[in-house]
Amino acid sequence: MQHASPSPARPGPRDWLSLARRAFDAWLQDYAPSMGAALAYYTVFSLGPVMLLVISIAGLVFGEEAAQRALFGELQRLMGHDAAEAVQAVLATFRDGSRAGTGTAIGLVLLLVGATTVFAELQDALDRIWRAPTRGRPSGPWALVRARFLSFGLILGIAFLLMVSLVLSAAVSALGTWWGTWFGAWELLAQALNLVLGFAITTLVFALIYKLMPRVKVRWLDVWLGAAITAALFSLGQVLIGLYIGKTGVASGWGAAGSLVIVFVWVYWAAQVFLLGAEFTWVYAKTWGSMRGLATPPPAEGPAPAAGEAATAAPRTALEPPGAALPPFDGRVGASALGRRGG
């Protein structure tokens, strides 16, 4: 039986740069641009149901209007003003079209299936990254129901974190009313507190997904750094995507569909950041984390890479120590999400 090797001495800057390079190489080797496109597709079509459920659950405690205001405040912080407004338009369209059906049992089931589809796709993507074994994996209707329940549990978790965000924001506002007359710089401090709280909640959401979604054992210590880096990249992405949308006018030629185009652009970026963070978490766990020294299962055969990916993509085997080169190309990686879901 193999055991994890003891942790090495404290890594230096070159080790961290090597780790980042290897995470990026792994991102290419798993055909993340193609995988992220599929993830973005499922995300856009699950966006309306997910937000409707989150607002409805949080609205039971704080009221639907307050929950919606808090949710779009978080989205605006993450996505920027234009993308958040586009998401709000998507939710309004979905809500108008679903009011007639969500009161029935069939409508509720369809709402739950639509909301959990993106999480099933997330699980497939993380299983590919973490080399989750397919042999012996439960299949059939009960396995599908179990996966949907896990996805719904994550939706409940997001709703709970939204409620926490509402409580903390209200507390900061109350402190501002109390201390504002005594402490002149309170407004600046309150903005800093809101930024820190938002970053912490975003990091926690990514940590929950990285920890709970893969069908392998992942330790909490392995996910926190990757989750924090992903949250930081999301904050950077708000600026970059805002500049891209504002300067290029990417949605101007699409007329009424412009809002949907903005959402697709942002969601595709978000999917790539999410997958890169997952790859970093995997590489970190194999290099310095709980999986150090453990054998890596061989990659499964999968579809050919998209155009532009074949020249750089290569399958991974067990990671070598920091600074070592990755193994050479000898095949293809991954199995299609739909193929695995059907198996």
UniProtKB/TrEMBL annotation:
Membrane topology per the entry is:
Multi-pass membrane protein
Does the keyword field hold Membrane?
yes
Q: Which organism is it from?
A: Rubrivivax gelatinosus (strain NBRC 100245 / IL144)
Primary localization: membrane
Q: Which UniProt keyword terms apply here?
A: Cell membrane, Membrane, Transmembrane, Transmembrane helix
Q: Write down what this protein is called.
A: Putative ribonuclease
Output the Gene Ontology cellular-component terms: plasma membrane
Q: Which residues cross the membrane?
A: 39-62, 100-122, 143-168, 188-209, 221-245, 257-285
